[in-house]
Amino acid sequence: MSDWHDDELERMQEALRPLRYQSRRAELEARLEPRGPVRMPAWKHYAIAAAVLVSVGVSAAAYVYQHSPGWAIASTEGEVSLNWGSRFTRVLRSGEGLETAAGQVQLRVGSIGALTIGKNSRIRLVEASPNQQTVSLEHGEIRASILAPPRQFQVLTPAAKAVDLGCAYTLKVDRDGNGHLEVTMGWVSFEDRGRQSFIPVGAACRTRKGLGPGTPYYLDAEPGLINALEQVDFSAQPAERLAARKTLLPLARRRDALTLWHLLSRGTPDERGMTVDRLTALAPLPPGVTREAILRLEPDALQRLWDGMNLGPGAWWKLWGFTPPPAPVVRR
Asked: How far apart are the first and last CA of the chain?
């Protein structure tokens, strides 16, 4: 019995022998022996260097973009199209534009005011520097509220340039490039190729692409005067312009001397004569100013006529360092 058990035990030990504990120290020590330096393939070096350069370039570009001059986007409402940079930083940079569909945008014009972009409008920021803020309105509507020295804020349109003289106004431009401006505070100068229209609070002015600014008029003027003025400003037919002038002159009030002053340089000598006569019927000429000097469009006479008829607040213009309106440029 004992011999059988001994034989069985030996067989079991033999069967389990492969599973016995074996030290692997020698094998592990061999694996941990120092080896020679591992060489990285050359292409990996180039790949890493390229990645570093790209990262540095992107970071530099982002820094320059974020610190370049621009107007802060104060708020957006509805559908507005902005590029990725403006959408991310909430700043519109020089050279960038935006377009509204059913929405609107309010921009901060540096530290001098605000600009609201209405629906279905397209603008582009032209310049945003400490001394000059300029935006281009291709079409649509903007509302500006600015408190700054004259000429620091300007809006370019296809027909004329609106130059801020410290004011608030609404400017609309249709898809043909024609515009309409209404001033709610201060004064605006509408300019194109030397021709200027000076528009005070409560007044408006139209523009036509290729013809420039029309003649300013007060919004409470006689409707017949306002309608006739459009023919005077933009009709291609001399007979129509003459007939329209004859229609509007009797409708002019003393307050409408602003309109008549601008009309002096817009028309034929005969049309200028009838305009001077209507002006003198509304108010006498200032001392030292003659009818003949006005007919000759002498700058000093026109300037003294402007001041003598109290057409504009020249005092605060001078306070800002801005010269009151010069002699109009004749262009027909």
From this structure: 139
Question: Do 85 and 185 belong to one domain?
Answer: yes
Q: What token pair was written down for 272?
A: 């200028």
Cα–chain center distance at 299: 33
Domain count, the chain: 2
pLDDT tens-digit series, residues 135-158: 999 999 999 999 998 899 999 999
Tell me the pLDDT tens digit for each residue of 90-143: 999 999 999 999 899 999 999 999 999 999 999 999 999 999 999 999 999 999
Tokens encoding 139: 């079409």
- Of 184, 214, 244, the residue that ends a domain is 214
Give the integer Cα–Cα distance in Å for 116 and 301: 40
Nearest to 170 by CA among 158, 160, 180: 180
Q: Establish if 12 belongs to a structural domain.
A: no
CA distances 172 to 37, 159, 161, Å, are 74, 11, 12
Question: Which alpha helices (DSSP H) does the chain contain, by range?
Answer: 2-16, 25-31, 42-67, 84-89, 223-234, 238-248, 257-263, 269-282, 291-295, 299-308, 314-319
Residue 184's domain is classified under what CATH number? 2.60.120.1440
Side chain identity, residue 188 = V
**Residue written as token pair 């973009």:** 65
Phi, psi of 90 (to 5 degrees): 60, 35
DSSP state of 23: -
How far is the C-alpha of 67 from the C-alpha of 50, rounded, in Å?
Answer: 26
Count CA within 13 A, CB hemisphere, residue 283. 20
Calculate ∠ Cα 242-297-236, nearest 5°: 30
Rg of the chain over Cα atoms, rounded to whole angstroms, equals 39
Please indicate, yes or no, whether residues 188 and 270 belong to a single structural domain of this protein. Answer: no
Domain end (from 214, 246, 279): 214
Q: Does residue 238 share a domain with residue 137? A: no
Answer yes or no: do 95 and 183 share one domain. Answer: yes
pTM of the prediction? Answer: 0.76
Instruction: Give the pLDDT confidence of 54-96 residue by residue, as tens digits.
Output: 454 434 444 444 445 899 999 999 999 998 888 889 999 999 9
